[in-house]
Amino acid sequence: xxxxxxxxxxxxxxxxxxxxxxxxxxxxxxxxxxxxxxxxxxxxxxxxxxxxxxxxxxxxxxxxxxxxxxxxxxxxxxxxxxxxxxxxxxxxxxxxxxxxxxxxxxxxxxxxxxxxxxxxxxxxxxxxxxxxxxxxxxxxxxxxxxxxxxxxxxxxxxxxxxxxxxxxxxxxxxxxxxxxxxxxxxxxxxxxxxxxxxxxxxxxxxxxxxxxxxxxxxxxxxxxxxxxxxxxxxxxxxxxxxxxxxxxxxxxxxxxxxxxxxxxxxxxxxxxxxxxxxxxxxxxxxxxxxxxxxxxxxxxxxxxxxxxxxxxxxxxxxxxxxxxxxxxxxxxxxxxxxxxx
Length: 341
Hints:
Blueprint: E1 2-4, H1 14-25, E2 32-39, E3 42-50, H2 57-65, E4 76-82, H3 96-108, E5 113-119, E6 127-130, E7 133-139, H4 147-154, H5 163-168, H6 175-191, H7 200-215, H8 226-236, H9 239-245, H10 254-267, H11 274-286, H12 290-303, H13 308-318, H14 323-334
Parallel strand pairs: 4-5
Antiparallel strand pairs: 1-3, 2-3, 2-4, 5-6, 6-7
């Protein structure tokens, strides 16, 4: 399931809401069921899942509803189905039974579904139909010209054609490159084997290295060298350094840190890739980009299936824990940084 709150704004018609979906979750959803949680006319949270096999409709509906148990009754939701077959609109819309299960599951947690929409796509001029009112229909406005699109651009967010395109941005580097870096890392580990795990000098050096690479990430025009990847990967393998680095998700270095974590997620060998991928997921989670956080967590858990922090973040994302709650952890971690002055 994808949980996102990366763009907040007002939507007033079903067509506007369909057009907003790519900007709310970071990509154009296909074959998806989406819940948009509203307070008044403002979007507060968006939950997306792949369309389930019809025999699993109730289970999927309960899974979508679970994160909303934390919300008071003043919130409401709009359910949207994107794709799911042609049906015979408007007389018979695809996945009607799924929508009925979603409405029942949300009613159980006290969040009413005030509108349910079907559309084949989130593209300009795609038709949309209202499950509750067969006479209520229209077409989707251009998703690139909406208010939410402008807000996304202003925030520096990119909207991808689909989830696979977003996931491709974190694909690992070629295997031969990863092999060289793994060998460089092995040499580095061997060189430091005699040092104690919590050697203060080593810890300070690792903190300083991470900080220096973050501060130069914005202006650096070349990729990290194999030696730099190995050194950073080695530094982040120390959980004291890794945990302190969570603090970069808040403050003036947040964007630069995320840039570095993304590069290291692609560039680091297994299983060490788990650390930068988890830091990337944490950073994306903090700023409300649930789709990107989910993909980064996939990379982390592919690298190390039992990674504790990645597992906890994955659970938080699945339960819809608000980014503001997770942000408190980042603020505490920021206090772990040694004096960089």
